[in-house]
Amino acid sequence: MLVVFMACKKLTTDAFQEHPVLKAPLNIAVVNDDDQLPVVGVKVIISRKTSPKDDYVRVDTVRTNEKGQINGYILPYPNFLKIEVDTTYYHKGKQTLEFVTENGGSVMLHTTPKYGMAPLSIDVTNSTTVVPIPGLALSISSRAPETTEWLSTGPENADAMGKLMVSLPYPNEVRIAVADTIMYFPDTTFTNLKNVRGEAVSLKTELKPLTVPLEVTLLDKDNQNPLANAEIAVLLKLTGEADFKDINLVGTTDDDGKVILNAPYSGEVLVKTNDDIYYLPDSYVTRLAYEKNRKITLLSKLQNPLVPVELSVFNAVYGRDNKRAALGTTVKVSFRKKGQTVFTDFLTNAIAADGKLTMSMPLGDEFRFSVSGDDRFIDKTITYTNVGFTLKEIDFELDLRPAKYPEPVLTNLQVGTLALNNSLSVNKPQDIAVDKLGNKYITEGSGNRILRVDRFGNTTVLAGTGTAGVVNGDGAVAQFNAPWGITIDADGNLYTTDNSSSSGNRIRKITIDALYKATVSTIAGSGATGSTDGTGTSATFNRPSGICYDQARNCLYVVEWGGHRLRKIELSNNKVTTLAGSSSGVVEGVGTAAKFQIPWGVKLSADGNHLYVSSWNGNAISKVRLSDNNVTILGRSKSNMSLPRGLYISPANQVFLANTGGHYISKIQSEADGNASTFVKVTGGTSAGDVDGNANAARLSGPVGIAYDPYIGMFYIADGDGSNQKVRTMKSSDIQ
């Protein structure tokens, strides 16, 4: 305390008396405690105490050299010093020192890096004489990979030998530039810090001639309005020289069309517009030794060159080899011209039917494309660096966001009708599959087509001519024979059952390309009525109805309306086997000892270990254990169940039934084997009708298939067994 008091007293006395200032050297070493090696290029903050109350004032910030040291830093004494490591990239390391004798003092700071750090060695020399430039102000900034913002390290200066060591995180791109471009010619270099070995760079510059402010105003040559964001350049020709030389002196006009440049006092200067792409050229030659010449006006005209751009927006939710165009997705487009710091909005538009957004954009250094607020895709922005005027073909891949309503919200349900456009209607809708992108695929039992309704309501015929048949190939010429059930696999392929007893009895596959063009093939079933197991078309079916997909086992499950069986199709080889069922009835048992009675619906349980099968004519729900094909009866002729067909199973294993005979939707309230399950209604109607509104009062005609979209919390119901011939919707009014 005595030393501190005397030091403070001496500093106070110094303010009133003139006498020589006593100085001594300070030596600092910084060691990395992780490896006991010196820390090169780290910032060290030196402060001195100014009062007995531990008040300190910063004296300087200095970086260690290539040996992790700061040697012979001269400071007045006596002083009480605090020396500490800058904590931007390193953990705290601090020492205090009584700096009271002519011998000065030494400290060793211990620290550890917060990140992977690399040394950057910088040499600054005169570009003509190659002599080091001591004390030159430098600008150092860095940015991390895949970022655009440069982060400055703060004021930096070369040492007495024109050198500076800087410790920065890696990986990083680093920009090093001459900071004092008023007195020195600019120079900038870039490097990438990739590993702990670091990098070495050099800057070359020299003093500019003496400068004076030059005010340049740029006006529209036709209407005299100011032209902003235009680059103005100054070239120099000294006495005795034949040509003007580029001295790297440029500036950008402000909103008033003005820019002030510190231009050379000596010689002639050529002042000109510096961007002939955006502005008509103009120039002016003058000598700035005369003050009257230091305000000049250039006349130009803003041009609007255009670049053709073709943006393809897609997603790979079904795999990169099975991309789907993000049709109808709204994209915001903007551009940044040369010299500008902000982007200008150009347009906001939806992706067209060809999966592309085609436009002619103003020429810019960068184009930016953004999707935000979409209910399917995560917000995403990409920036494209543009060069030249040629066609730019740009890919923009979107990523699917998590579903908002994985479990249905069942409060305040409202029933509606799915609107179809393009003059299309649905003929005996049987089943619906909803993909991850919000497309609804609807089978027409009598229309012999597969309809697609996208998430924006646009309706098209995916496949089928409308004529009953068994034609494979392009969706536009393909034919189906009473398609009933439909499901979708992990690659986005569709499978449907041809239910007709006359040349139906087939399982069809529909592949879909990026623009939703369909190709149809037959994977199983010869067309003949039967129950023969086999591979592909050597197998026979008896009016296949419901179908579902099992991703874990890479197979399909099919139930037969006429054959009363549960069949399995292995997708690796299209091998067909019988799992359960034989003749009509509702009987528990294992495999073919069990019975189903005109089954329609089949769905996989949430845990993937069981199948639920609805027997329409048997008025029953059965459960099949896939480990041994044991079949149990969950419910038969129970309350709130009436001739069920379609099924939907939620991720929490809520089981929903489309009760064709009862004209309502219900669900299993409590599940128990031995016909002990209970059921509860989801919609209230018990008579056929066509009434939208509150689910308790709404009326359905003959609900068959049922599906659910977890992204918008919407059920879709194929109301196709009675007179309605519609797809009905059901959603809680409590959600958006």
Through-space gap between termini: 70 Å
Structural class computed from helices and strand pairing: mainly beta
The radius of gyration computed from the alpha-carbon positions, rounded to a whole number of angstroms, is 39 Å
What is the share of helical residues? under 10%
Average of the residue pLDDT scores: 94
The shape, in one word, is elongated
Uncertain parts: 1-16
- The fraction of residues in strands falls at over 45%
Main β sheet profile: 5 strands, antiparallel
Can you count the helices?
A: 1
Number of strands: 59
Task: Summarize this structure as a short list of keywords or feature phrases.
736 residues, 5-stranded antiparallel sheet, 1 helix, 48% strand, disordered N terminus
Summary?
With 736 residues, this protein is an all-beta fold. 2% of the residues lie in helices and 48% in strands. The chain contains 1 helix and 59 strands.
Explain the overall architecture.
The protein is an all-beta fold and 736 residues long. 2% of the residues lie in helices and 48% in strands. The strands form 14 sheets. Strands 10, 11, 12, 14 and 15 form a five-stranded antiparallel beta sheet that branches. The two termini are 70 Å apart. Mean pLDDT is 94; it is low at 1-16.
List the helices and strands and how they pair.
Elements: H1 2-14, E1 23-32, E2 37-38, E3 43-49, E4 56-63, E5 69-76, E6 79-85, E7 94-99, E8 105-111, E9 117-126, E10 137-143, E11 151-152, E12 156-157, E13 163-169, E14 172-178, E15 188-193, E16 199-205, E17 211-220, E18 231-237, E19 245-252, E20 258-264, E21 268-273, E22 283-287, E23 295-300, E24 306-315, E25 324-325, E26 330-336, E27 344-350, E28 356-362, E29 366-371, E30 380-385, E31 392-398, E32 413-417, E33 429-434, E34 440-444, E35 450-453, E36 459-463, E37 473-474, E38 483-488, E39 494-498, E40 506-512, E41 518-524, E42 534-535, E43 544-550, E44 555-560, E45 566-570, E46 575-580, E47 589-590, E48 599-604, E49 610-615, E50 620-625, E51 630-636, E52 644-649, E53 655-659, E54 664-670, E55 678-681, E56 693-694, E57 703-709, E58 714-719, E59 726-732
Parallel strand pairs: 1-8, 9-16, 17-23, 24-31
Antiparallel strand pairs: 1-2, 1-5, 3-4, 3-6, 6-7, 9-13, 10-11, 10-12, 10-14, 14-15, 17-20, 18-19, 18-21, 21-22, 24-25, 24-28, 26-27, 26-29, 29-30, 32-56, 32-59, 33-34, 34-35, 35-36, 37-41, 38-39, 39-40, 40-41, 42-46, 43-44, 44-45, 45-46, 47-51, 48-49, 49-50, 50-51, 52-53, 53-54, 54-55, 57-58, ...
